[in-house]
Amino acid sequence: MRRKINRQMSIFELMHTSAIAKELRCISQILDHTPDILDAVHRDLLQGRREDTGRCGLTADQVLRCAVLKQYRELTYEELAFYLEDSVAFRSFARLEMGVYPRKSILQDSIKSLTESTWEALHHLILGYAAGTRIETGKKVRIDSTAIETNIHHPTDSSLLWDGIRIMTRWMVEGHQLRPRPDYQFSDHRRVAKKRALTILNARKQETRVAAYRDLVGVADKVCGYAREAIPVLGAYQGDSFQDGCTAHLLAQQLERALRILEKVIDQTKRRVFRDEKVPASEKIISFFESHSDIIVKSRRETEYGHKVFFTGGASNLILDCVIARGNPADSDQYIDMLERHQQRFGTMPRQASADGGFASRDNLSFAKEHQVKDAVFSKRRGLGVLDMAKSNWVYKRLKHFRAGIEANISALKRRFGLTRCTWSGWRGFRRYVWSNVVSYNLLVLARIELAQG
Q1: pLDDT tens digit string along 10-66?
Q2: CA pair distance 373, 22, nearest whole angstrom
């Protein structure tokens, strides 16, 4: 059974007077002003099931508040479960009834049920609340981008080959543990593969490294052959129980996916190591587990592995928009899209827009001016005149300094809310993680503004 909200709060639900408790009280009031979002949260939790059957789970309101708490304090699910049991302020904010102590597994299943579209819808409602209270008008914006890493290790050809050999062998071992045993043969080469990977890592001579690569690629080819034999056997496996049949079919799907990736890794290793070719970034495999990750290269910076995210910030320090891009698009290619998205959300173009130097181009400036952006400033001119961007040198300097503020907003998202590295798996998990952090950050900014206003 799943409800949207508790009918009535207990008389024992009290908030402390600490700074954190005051912020939570303000965030709670803001969430109470956006009740429409509970419909979307409720649908995500039901996932097509009936709402009037089964045990009484956490309400939609409780799940949303627990999710905000997790991101607001950058907690693990285990820490969140502890604080919800131990802290009166956290329990009051989450509106948990006396005797209700959700475990970390329940919290994880419930919070990860919320889709990225639900988080984005909540973001829009929060911006509507900010516009209604005149905290944010959207007339003055600043635009910048950053890279957010996925939860993977630094990719090398040897480590990727070792990953593929290791996980595919493990899955084939699990298949042989089914009863009756599936009829396919394989050998465990994990020990020799690990030795060759370590040899590549520590080799000082190129000849030694290339010889170890040839051995490792040979082992990977053998494992691919074992997998090709095992996949149809596991796919057709029946077993003594329904559970064993489902396990075998799942292993077949996992092996089929890993086989495709390992074959690409073998190909790119042969091209890079043996033929000394340069493989384009779009063709590279950098992870078996987070295959959606992109290679992000910025000038004079270390290469990062994750996704490029574009932010639009307002004068109130709220994040007004967030675009999670695939690939490694140039900043200048996203400028027009960011302005158009802002127009759709606020009904009008901003009066003033300040962006990082990477967004600067003659076409972007012309588009902004043609669409009633009075002052369209870039932190680096790149051949553009100051008076072409702003009406005076003074306005240009003010907007250039104003743009620097979004660096602090992004720093807070990364340092305070954990956006340096996404710890949720998959492309959809990445989007949910980013949007949930943006929503939690905006709620905290609004709460602090209202506390400052008294």
Answers
A1: 554 555 678 888 999 999 999 999 888 899 999 999 886 766 666 778 999 999 999
A2: 39
When the pLDDT of each residue in the chain is averaged and rounded to a whole number, the result is 92
Spatial neighbors of 431 by CB under 8 A, at least 6 apart, are: 116, 324
Site of tokens 């099931």: 49
Q: What is the DSSP string of 175-231?
A: HHTSSSPPS------HHHHHHHHHHHHH--SHHHHHHHHHHHHHHHHHHHHHHHHHH
- 409, 311 in Cβ contact below 8 A? yes
The residue type at 269: T
Pick the CATH number of 136-152+294-432 from 2.60.40, 1.10.10, 3.30.420, 3.30.70: 3.30.420
Q: What is the pLDDT of residues 104-162, one digit of tens each?
A: 999 999 999 999 999 999 999 999 999 999 999 999 999 999 999 999 999 999 999 99
Helices and strands of the chain, counted as H and E runs: 17, 6
Give CA–CA dist 281/86, Å, rounded. 48
Banded pLDDT at 240 (limits 50, 70, 90): confident
DSSP SS3 for 143: strand
Of residues 270 and 8, the one with the higher pLDDT is 270
Contact call for residues 306 and 149 (beta carbons, < 8 A): yes
240: buried, middle or exposed (CB in 10 Å: 19+, 13-18, 0-12)? exposed
Rounded to whole angstroms, how far apart are CA atoms 123 and 34? 10
Strands 352-355 and 375-378: parallel
CB 365 within 8 A of CB 388: yes
Taking only the tens place, the pLDDT of each residue in 311-349 is 999 999 999 999 999 989 999 999 999 999 999 999 999
Question: 405-417 and 426-453 are packed helices; what angle lies between their axes, rounded to 10 degrees?
Answer: 110
- Tell me: pLDDT of 404 over 70: yes
pLDDT at position 16: 66
On whether the CB atoms of residues 395 and 386 are closer than 8 A, the answer is no
**Cβ 417 vs Cβ 148: under 8 Å:** no
Cis, peptide link before residue 180, omega less than 30° from 0: yes
| Domain ranges within the chain, ordered by starting residue | 19-114, 136-152+294-432, 157-283
